[in-house]
Amino acid sequence: MSSPFEGMLEMLTRQRGVVGCLIVGEDDGIIVDVNVQVGIDAPVIAALAAALYRRARLSSEAAGLATVNFLQLEAERGHLCMAGRDGLVIVTITEPKAQIGLIRGAMLQSVETLA
Amino acid sequence: MRARVAEPWVEVPLQRFVDDARVLFALLLHPSGQVLGQFGFTRAVDVMAACALGAAIHASASQLGRELDGKPFRELYHAGRHRQIFIAETPTIRGPLILLTAFDTESSLGLVQVFFRNFCDMLRTAVPPVDEQPPVFTGDLERDLNRSLAILFGRARPPLADRGPSHPSE
What we know:
The complex is a heterodimer of chains A (115) and B (170). Chain A has three helices and five strands. By secondary structure, chain A is an alpha+beta fold.
């Protein structure tokens, strides 16, 4: 059975350097839909990324900065990108060489369709 | 606040779970209802009640799973308005144990599930061989429960073989 997020996940995972993409509930950290390469522990990433995004959103609101549009975690072996709306978070896992600008644009476009 | 334990080998895994998952309460118990360790409770009577209810809920859910799915449900989750509970079984060489935990918006079901997996792994490596320790349970539920509660709340000392490095002064 296909999910309403299947097209979005396909579009995001087609971006160069993307190794996986997840739609996660922000409050519970549970996967709603996922498209990741073999070997990626999606439930762990979902739970931790949702917690990270939630903390960032609360920090931003507490600082009077309003909504978090896009959150990027840069690590030695790649990036974790997050964008959320209405209790759902799009999480993208990328390689270091990925073009984050393009991925950011695609994620911000995709997040508009979340709800 | 530190986790209080009746069996020292459960202390490190339980404390790690509590720290990582940021839960409010955690209770590790035998399916009979006897407590092995707890975090967050301040009164023995609350631990006793939570153990009895947790064991009963787990037994009911297991039987329901057998009826519906042919095998027991291993995890149970309930979301309240402000707090949520998660009850799951963890296998050890000494038989299955049950973790009952309550958390609020500081944590999430996903985080609790992830760190529960880590907890199971840590418990599996921490459990001492059966022949190295006296039996945890003697078969007298009331006496065993009272003994565990007394150890948890500092009214009694653990068995000699249990003490080890976590009680260097004894």
